[in-house]
Amino acid sequence: MNANALNSVVEDYGHIIESLYLPNIDDRYVLSCSNSIKCCNHFVTFNLKNFPNEYLDKYHKTTVFVNVF
Fold it and tell me: Are the beta carbons of 10 and 36 closer than 8 angstroms?
């Protein structure tokens, strides 16, 4: 991935996964990555049910459906 988009690989984010809460615990790594790089405010996804805004509000993030983006 880094060959096509420089600096796109996020590392050292695993230590905060356990402190995060989402309806699907397997998706916490996405939130953890975005928190570690401190530049992602919106998740563009088809999967709105696993990233509801009421959970993301406390992390200052929002979800945007792909077709709306």
Answer: yes
Residue partners of 65: CB distance under 8 A and separation at least 6: 44, 45, 46, 48
According to DSSP, the residues that pair with 62 across neighbouring strands are 42
Q: Which of 23, 2, 22, 21 is nearest to 11 (CA)?
A: 2
Convert the pLDDT of each residue in 22-31 to its tens digit. Answer: 999 999 988 8
Residues 6+ apart with CB under 8 A from 61: 31, 34, 40, 41, 42, 43
Q: How many CB atoms lie within 10 A of CB 48?
A: 13
Residue matched to tokens 């983006």: 69
- Rounded to two decimals, the pTM is 0.73
Number of helical H runs and strand E runs in the chain: 2, 2
